[in-house]
Design goal:
alpha+beta; about 35% strand
């Protein structure tokens, strides 16, 4: 596995368009790999005054075209991800950042046997409950007060130019503890939640001792 980072130019017209229509970044990400398209995890990160696209992939990407389209001219960075995964152990604590699409299933009051409809979690209490539920399923624990919602954004765009899409993106940051290393490493590699094609679901972690990953 590889984790890559490309600095984006938010003043570039192509970047400004993609920031409100994330499927454009999705296409550029998939074009960084040869062969048939398949979904890979990526995310936009604002660090200080700089904007980055993070990408997690099994193969080393060629980000030349992506940087030419959206970048500042700075070369992209790519590093192996496996050394970080090897450091994930039961009981270890990590600082994390996750941008995801929290949803909840809402039952039809007229038909209790019908499958629930997925609805975005717009309330912060629902967003927190969603993260606790994911933690229980994916091998980590977060306690009350150990994390916060630091950003919320709703995207409105058209998929393939015709189908309207509304997507809630919520960024969580805080401290977690690993309870099941294998389940947690699967989350890191496969992502969590819906909207992965649009830059959601990628969790990144930094060891509390200060080593970045």
């Amino acid at each position: 596995m590889y984790l890559s980072r490309a600095e984006l130019d938010p003043t570039c017209r192509e970047t400004m368009v993609a920031l409100i229509s994330p499927q454009k970044f999705h296409g550029a990400v998939e074009n960084a790999f040869p062969g048939a398209r398949r979904r890979r995890l990526w995310r936009l990160d604002q660090l200080g005054e700089k904007l980055y696209l993070l990408l997690l992939s099994e193969e080393r990407p060629d980000l030349t075209a992506l940087c030419a389209q959206f970048g500042t001219g700075a070369p992209p960075e790519t590093r192996p991800y496996d050394p970080l995964l090897e450091r994930v152990t039961a009981g270890s604590c990590w600082q994390f950042r996750l941008t995801a699409n929290p949803t909840r299933s809402k039952k039809d009051s007229a038909d209790h046997t019908a499958r629930g409809t997925l609805k975005p979690c717009y309330l912060e209490v629902e967003q927190e409950e969603w993260l606790w539920a994911q933690a229980a399923k994916h091998g980590f624990a977060v306690s009350e007060g150990s994390f916060a919602v630091t950003r919320k954004q709703t995207y409105h765009f058209k998929k393939n130019g015709t189908r309207p899409v509304t997507l809630l993106a919520v960024t969580y940051e805080g401290i977690l503890q690993v309870t099941d290393p294998e389940a947690f490493k699967a989350l890191l590699c496969e992502g969590v939640g819906r909207g992965k094609a649009y830059g959601l679901g990628l969790m990144t972690i930094i060891h509390r001792g200060g080593d970045h990953g």
